[in-house]
Automatic annotation (TrEMBL):
Pfam families in alphabetical order: LUD_dom
Native species: Ornithinimicrobium pratense
Stored SUPFAM superfamilies: NagB/RpiA/CoA transferase-like (SSF100950)
Annotated InterPro entries: FTHF_cligase-like_sf, LUD_dom, NagB/RpiA_transferase-like
Protein name stated in the entry: Lactate utilization protein C
LUD domain residues: 43-214
Highest taxon in the source lineage: Bacteria
Signal peptide (from-to): none
């Protein structure tokens, strides 16, 4: 038996008891006719995001700023970088919490360097879409999300997403995304278990991920 044949034989053996039909799109089938589907999709999203060890909070539109401030205080953040296009009402009250807001521009107008970003504690962004079945948030780096490096260098990422931007699965999300834009897919805090299967967080990105879901 060749190596290829051995690998295929192992795959067939491992999937022998799989009953899911090809093309099925996971649990909780969502249809436009089902009035409860959006709510169930949101519940699944919250469950799976939390399962990745992210901290999830649901709030009303009027409580977004309070929820952001609480997440930053809980994470011990003092200096927070914010994208230029982030909703001003979300972050204006942060100054009263003793948190210093850092724009993504140095005094001479250039974007902050990686070394300068390493000196801030957290970043606050919006998100383009959330995926329920995978617990994933996707950034397309519009002005309310900022450059990709903003969501990779600081130790804490507070990501705000509206409930109506949460979809059931990856195909639903892809249909809403522009493939020509840079996309960052985030499923929980950055973590790796490459070395002796010991989980280490914060290796390739933020160690702390807070997801704030705005519900109507």
């Amino acid at each position: 038996m060749s190596a290829r044949e051995e690998i295929l034989a192992r795959l067939r053996a491992a999937t022998r008891d799989v009953t899911t039909q090809q093309g099925a799109r996971g649990e909780l089938a969502v249809t436009a006719a089902s009035a409860e589907s959006p709510a169930r999709t949101l519940e699944l999203f919250v469950h799976n995001v939390a399962d990745y060890r992210a901290r999830v909070e649901r709030c009303s539109p009027g409580d977004v700023a309070t929820s952001i401030a609480a997440a930053l205080v809980r994470g011990g953040a003092h200096r927070v970088v914010v994208p230029d296009g982030l909703d001003a009402s979300w972050i204006a009250p942060l100054r009263d919490s003793g948190i210093r807001l850092v724009p993504d521009r140095a005094d001479d107008g250039r974007p902050l360097s990686s070394a300068e970003l390493d000196e801030v504690d957290a970043v606050v962004t919006a998100a383009r879409v959330g995926i329920a079945t995978t617990g994933t948030i996707v950034l397309d780096h519009d002005t309310d999300q900022g450059r990709r490096v903003l969501s990779l260098v600081p130790d804490q990422h507070v990501c705000v997403i509206r409930a109506d931007r949460v979809v059931h699965d990856v195909p639903d999300a892809v249909s809403l995304l522009d493939p020509l834009r840079p996309l960052t897919w985030i499923s929980g805090p950055s973590a790796t278990s490459d070395i002796e299967l010991d989980r280490v967080e914060g290796v390739h990105g933020p160690r702390i991920l807070d997801v704030i879901v705005i519900e109507p």
